[in-house]
Q: What sequence folds into this?
């Protein structure tokens, strides 16, 4: 458990993807089965046990700590699990006892002299006790002791005073005591015990483990049992690390993943070259998806329009809808996200529609009365813990299909896109379900005519669905279905983003490589207030600029700071003084979290407008107008419901 | 004699009227007794300064020859009469030369401990618990969430990272006086013998430690070293420098910070730290409470830090306790938190 805790601890602070992978690979190398498998399960969200509620954790600490000290500590730390992990008392200690080894001084109003005598006597016992602790300690204590022995303190440093010098021995016992004498539980023990543990036994078991672990171990344990890992690791990243560890392609791991289960000993045997590749017996497996490159103006010169098929690029959720027959001949249906995460439970209304074995690549959309809704509408259907009948009725799910990877038992991925498209058309018509339709192709003669279609989707065939179109896709007719982002096969040509000119207001340091740069920018637009014209923040962006532009902004921030709040700098933003940023974004939403009441989707810095004085930057009204257009359209559609 | 007739908090710092001196005064005074060389405790401009030889040397290094009107060095254990009181210095285990000051007047003894830690430090004399009637304790880490654990284990964490990322530079933020040298000494104890690089701001003080007979292995200045040559090595720098443009000379640096504050995740994240190392030169909660008990003092005065929690704890132990409300301490460390680097 402690090694796993050290991994989580390090991952939680590491911002870089490649460095996270290195840490994970080192862990898989250093740690044997089955611990590393359970770690992989924990990181991919594959563990299932009843999670402990925060109330339970609070009760545990309240039985063991002074309530005033707990309140002060919690207030300082701000996180319940962390507070409890840090202040959990050492074994045998009780809060109304002072330090083990030092008994509490007498509360009686005895004279200072008598008290001194008494505690000096007791100190003798304390020293005894610490020697005992040292004697039956584990290896890390020996290390410390050895360091002690080899250490030579230069003589001029040694105190010449006659003061009491008893803390040295007890200090050792004290710090060593943090590595408690009973062996700490392994990750495997924790996971397997939690699976079978009854609800009433949980508090006692948890307390026992907390007694046995160190600070980081306790923190990791509490994260695990409360189900709140949140350390910035996706399931995909953890699987990629496992693949790297065995020098395999991550897609291979992704392919067999649905057939595997914790602690993945067969997977690790294969990764280490000790065993055969596990066979995916999953009747409805995930297949790694094919992705597109963003097309640049310069790319078109080398491309022949005749080689490509164009489709609308839908602003929904990329999904792989798979159905297959299991050993009992029952149809199993699964929906996977583009990273291979199983999201079936979020969309039960779509499952019955997938009644034929096959694997469709397509887009999840909300369709009301035959009309595709914008991403803002779809978003209200996402990430719900409970999918209520009301939600299903108000936000009916739809699958717009654009590729077919398997038809029954036949893998179609080696076929060309044109051939797969034919099979897809046949498959969709055989499904004959109103929730599943084909993503139409766009006919075009030249890149110019496609550019026109992209500028006006509703006039070019998308009709009322144009609101959910965010550009066009180009797919080579002869391209097989290749995992990843192969060059030159699929292109995305996004609609031009919205653009506004905003004023830089605050800047914050970045992370990792960017920690010496002010690379996170909060920007605002003008609005009228009681105090006259003022800037109101409308968003935050931390990419879009070049390295050179980053240096320029960083220099500007450092030279024009008016106030500092910790890592945040308040940058000058007056009508005549300040930096105007051209900000590109994909859409707007109402938000109660921002003062302006508006949140931007995917904002990034498009250009630096050194030429523009801040007073000429955009106004909040411009954004509101844009937002109201969206809202009016939405109202019209839901009103007709 | 009442303790407050011996020592009393004043705006200039703790004042001993019967001895006519201040302890660690924050304003210029006629006579000062200084516990240790950190800038919030040892300031320039006093008339006469009494301190350990090491503390006086450190003040000289930092402020120049004329930092005080006159100086007098005192050894640990040596007793000196000042007016109506006797004072005696005992090792505080905080940094090189750090001392607790025992002030006795007739049959009452008060110990002003300054900053202290009760755990092992290869670079300074070990802490001594001094029996007294009133113990004045710091409370920098005066909350039960602060338990510093084993410093050697934290250094192991650092070395494991150096081994795992040989192409990256490891930048360890550490206070220039005391922490930096202790971290270097711990790294050496862990068996790492490659050269360790230093930020210019800590060269002088580190060389002084070496001159005092503390072996720190091969040390080199970062200045003048090529970027590629800084890969796979450990560099120590003042915390403020680890998020400064100064770091751009390092290849993909891993930013570490050696401090007791690193125990709390939010603190580490706030400073953009990737590798927090819980290594402190102050006593942790268990150290504070154990030390208070060990002095046998019936009355505890609590200063700079989380006074409330420690005062509360003392009271639950039946000890008279009160916060001293001294201002101006803890500044050196706060200002060395990696919040801001200046661009010039």
A:
């Amino acid at each position: 458990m402690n090694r796993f805790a050290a991994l989580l601890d390090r991952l939680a602070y590491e911002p870089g993807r490649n460095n996270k992978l290195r840490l994970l690979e080192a862990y898989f190398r250093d740690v044997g089965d089955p611990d590393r498998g359970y770690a992989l399960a924990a990181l991919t969200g594959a563990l299932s046990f009843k999670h402990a509620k925060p109330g339970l954790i609070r009760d545990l600490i309240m039985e063991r700590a002074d309530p005033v000290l707990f309140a002060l500590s919690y207030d300082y730390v701000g996180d319940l699990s962390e507070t409890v992990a840090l202040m959990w008392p050492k074994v045998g200690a009780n809060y109304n006892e002072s330090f083990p080894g030092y008994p509490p001084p007498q509360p009686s109003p005895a004279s200072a002299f008598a008290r001194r005598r008494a505690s000096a006597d007791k100190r003798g016992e304390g020293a005894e006790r610490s020697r005992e602790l040292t004697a039956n300690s584990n290896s890390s204590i020996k290390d410390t002791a050895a360091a002690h022995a080899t250490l030579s303190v230069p003589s001029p440093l040694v105190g010449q005073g006659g003061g009491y010098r008893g803390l040295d021995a007890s200090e050792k016992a004290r710090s060593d005591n943090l590595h408690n004498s009973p062996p700490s539980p392994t990750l495997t023990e924790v996971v397997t015990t939690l699976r079978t543990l009854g609800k009433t036994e949980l508090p006692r078991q948890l307390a026992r483990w907390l007694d046995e672990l160190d600070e980081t171990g306790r923190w990791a344990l509490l994260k695990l049992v409360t189900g709140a890992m949140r350390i910035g690791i996706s399931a995909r990243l953890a699987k990629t690390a496992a693949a790297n560890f065995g020098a395999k392609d991550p897609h291979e791991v992704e392919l067999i993943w649905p057939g595997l289960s914790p602690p993945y000993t067969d997977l690790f045997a294969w990764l280490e070259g000790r065993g055969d590749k596990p066979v995916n017996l999953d009747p409805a497996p995930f297949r790694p998806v094919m992705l597109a490159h963003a097309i640049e103006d310069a790319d078109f010169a080398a491309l022949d329009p005749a080689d490509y098929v164009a489709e609308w690029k839908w602003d929904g959720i990329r999904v792989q809808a798979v159905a297959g027959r299991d050993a009992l001949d029952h149809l199993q249906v699964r929906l996977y996200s583009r990273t291979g995460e199983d999201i079936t439970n979020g969309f039960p209304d779509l499952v019955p529609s997938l009644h034929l074995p096959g694997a469709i690549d397509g887009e999840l959309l909300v369709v009301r009365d035959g009309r595709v809704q914008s991403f803002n509408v779809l978003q209200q259907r996402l990430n719900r813990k409970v999918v209520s009948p009301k939600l299903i009725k108000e936000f009916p799910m739809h699958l717009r299909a654009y590729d077919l990877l398997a038809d029954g038992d036949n893998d179609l991925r080696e076929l060309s896109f044109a051939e797969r498209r034919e099979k897809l058309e046949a498959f969709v018509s055989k499904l004959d379900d109103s929730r599943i339709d084909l993503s139409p192709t766009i006919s075009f003669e030249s890149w110019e005519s496609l550019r026109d279609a992209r500028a006006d989707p509703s006039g070019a065939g998308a009709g009322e669905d144009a609101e959910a179109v965010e550009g066009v896709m180009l797919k080579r007719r002869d391209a097989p279905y290749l995992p990843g982002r192969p060059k030159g096969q699929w292109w995305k040509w996004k609609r031009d983003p919205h653009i506004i000119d905003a004023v830089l207001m605050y800047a914050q340091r970045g992370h990792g490589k960017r920690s010496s740069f002010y690379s996170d920018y909060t920007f605002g637009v003008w609005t009228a207030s009681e105090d006259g014209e003022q800037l109101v923040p409308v968003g935050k962006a931390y990419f879009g600029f070049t390295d050179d532009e980053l240096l320029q902004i960083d220099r500007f921030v450092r030279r024009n700071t008016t106030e500092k709040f910790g890592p945040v700098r308040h940058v000058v933003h007056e009508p005549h003084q300040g930096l105007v940023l051209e900000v590109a974004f994909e859409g707007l939403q109402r938000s109660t979290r921002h003062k302006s009441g508006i949140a931007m989707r995917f904002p990034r810095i498009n250009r630096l407008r050194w030429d523009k004085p801040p007073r000429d930057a955009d106004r909040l009204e411009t954004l509101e107008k844009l937002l109201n257009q969206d809202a009016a359209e939405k109202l019209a559609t839901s009103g007709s419901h | 004699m009442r303790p407050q007739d011996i020592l009393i908090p004043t705006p200039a710092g703790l004042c001993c009227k019967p001895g006519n001196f201040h302890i660690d005064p924050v304003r210029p005074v006629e006579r000062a007794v200084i516990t240790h060389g950190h800038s919030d405790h040892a300031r320039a401009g006093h008339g006469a300064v009494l301190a350990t030889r090491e503390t006086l040397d450190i003040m000289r290094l930092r402020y120049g020859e004329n930092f005080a009107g006159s100086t007098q060095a005192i050894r640990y254990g040596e007793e000196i009469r000042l007016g109506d009181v006797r004072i005696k210095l005992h090792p505080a285990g905080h940094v090189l030369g750090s001392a607790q000051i025992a002030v006795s007047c007739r049959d009452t003894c008060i110990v002003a401990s300054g900053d202290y830690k009760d755990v092992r430090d290869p670079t300074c004399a070990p802490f001594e618990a001094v029996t007294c009637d009133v113990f004045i304790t710091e409370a920098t880490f005066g909350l039960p969430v602060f338990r510093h654990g084993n410093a050697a284990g934290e250094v192991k964490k650092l070395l494991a990272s150096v081994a795992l990322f040989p192409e990256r530079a490891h930048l360890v933020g550490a206070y220039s006086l005391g922490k930096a040298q202790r971290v270097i000494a711990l790294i050496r104890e862990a068996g790492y013998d490659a050269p360790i690089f230093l930020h210019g701001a800590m060269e002088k003080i580190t060389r002084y430690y070496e001159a005092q007979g503390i072996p720190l292995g091969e040390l080199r200045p970062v200045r003048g070293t090529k970027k590629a040559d800084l890969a796979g090595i450990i560099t120590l720098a003042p915390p403020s420098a680890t998020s400064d443009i100064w770091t751009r000379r390092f290849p993909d640096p891993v930013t570490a910070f050696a401090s007791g504050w690193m125990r709390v995740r939010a603190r580490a994240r706030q400073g953009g730290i990737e590798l927090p190392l819980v290594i402190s030169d102050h006593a942790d909660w268990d150290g504070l409470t154990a030390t208070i008990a060990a002095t046998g003092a019936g009355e505890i005065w609590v200063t700079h830090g989380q006074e409330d929690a420690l005062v509360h704890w003392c009271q639950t132990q039946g000890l008279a306790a009160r916060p001293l409300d001294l201002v101006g301490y803890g500044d050196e460390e706060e200002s060395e938190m990696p919040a801001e680097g200046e661009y010039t």
Summary: Chain B has two domains: 3-145+281-335, 151-277.
